[in-house]
Amino acid sequence: MTIIDGNIVTVAMPAIQNDLGFSAPGLAWVVNAYLIAFGGLLLLAGRLGDLIGRKRMFVSGLAVFTAASVLCGVATDQGLLIAARAVQGVGGAMTSAVVLGMLVALFPEPREQAKAIAVFSAVGAAGGALGTFLGGALTETLNWHWIFLINLPIGAVALVAAVRVLANDRGTGLAGGADYPGAVLITGALMLTVYTIVGSGERGTPATLALAALSLALYAAFAVRQTRTDRPLLRLRVFRSRTLTGANAVQILMIAGMFGFQYIGALYFQRVLGYGELKTGFAFLPAPVAIGVLMLGLSARVIGRFGPYRSVLGGLVLITAGLALLGRLPADGSYAVDVLPAMLLLGAGFAAAMPAVTGLAMAGAREEDAGLASGLFNTTQVVGGSLGLAVLTTLAASRTEGLLADGEETLAATADGYRLAFWVAAGVAAAGIALAATLLRPERGTTGTATPTQEQEPEKKQEPARIAP
After folding, report:
1. Which of 37, 138, 308, 331 could serve as 356's disulfide partner, Cβ 3.0–4.6 Å?
2. Domains of the chain, earliest start first
3. What is the pLDDT of residue 295?
């Protein structure tokens, strides 16, 4: 539900604009308000989950997200919709930040943990892809308000289930790590980073560089603060794990390419092939179906047989190939011939790579830092998606504008801009292959076929927090 709402508005944007009278720059804030709040609070929410209890954070986040969804659904003016989307982002961050930490605690045995992470990744991937389908279907058959109101029954069922099924975990207590000045610094830095990225296409280069410099200054101040306080919000020792750091870095590049595919692909279907909202939604269905089937049926076995390192590399190769195929899309393309093969390659590649990357990212964290590692992993997803979207849409628009200025036909110029974006996305995924080969390669003396949790640095053992199945 929370991942779907990150991109469910993509197809519904024209309907929202016509109904509420948004300008083009103002309309972007329907997406940006969610992304900034979501991305900015993930790390803080993950750490607070470790301190106050992950169930408490999860349930509170569900309540906030569901209530905000209702506000979005009944919004009749621009201000209320944007404000409610920001509150949705807050609730989404509270829930998403602690889910992986809860899974790791619930399934400490390596093989079971690999299966659980595969299910988690399948749900997340399906949510991302199904957002486009549901956005089109609900907007065309009902109206755009229902893309948000649909969350009320889902959220209510999830709340009841969470309260009844999940056992209480006490957390370590706020006294164990409540660094409030550090929280302000890192939240501000992350929000400013996402704001800088998502708005880069609307402002000039000097302003973007100035905001980026300010973000770096806030990160630096936060890092200094964490080395000097007795109760750090973020224990910098987590970055000593090459596995954790490398998995998050690889994920940024992988998500940048995949998120760009979803957004640019929707534009190609509508503006080049002339699809409506519902047909665009159906056109995306093969990807989540392939991802779900492969993740639930094969991912854990593939990781167990070949190891997470080889699974990541193989998946990234398939993703790169799929994006490269999209780089040859013609203006008069055929869905079955030009789009579907690439979509299936992307689905298979993501199904292979994402669970392995997730397991590697969580493998490098101690049990008491599981919420923090979960929040960090979700944060890099948002940063990667925002960065890919900003760069690829800017490149596509610049290419199209240049061709139109040279007298090129509109349809051909638009398709050429999208082809450039897909080629760049393929290059980003290829860079992910190189990064994974460098940072995720198993240490000498290991086979590379171990499940993620077997690659952890030796730490003192702790009993995992019990969560009822």
Report:
1. 308
2. 4-454 (1.20.1250.20)
3. 76
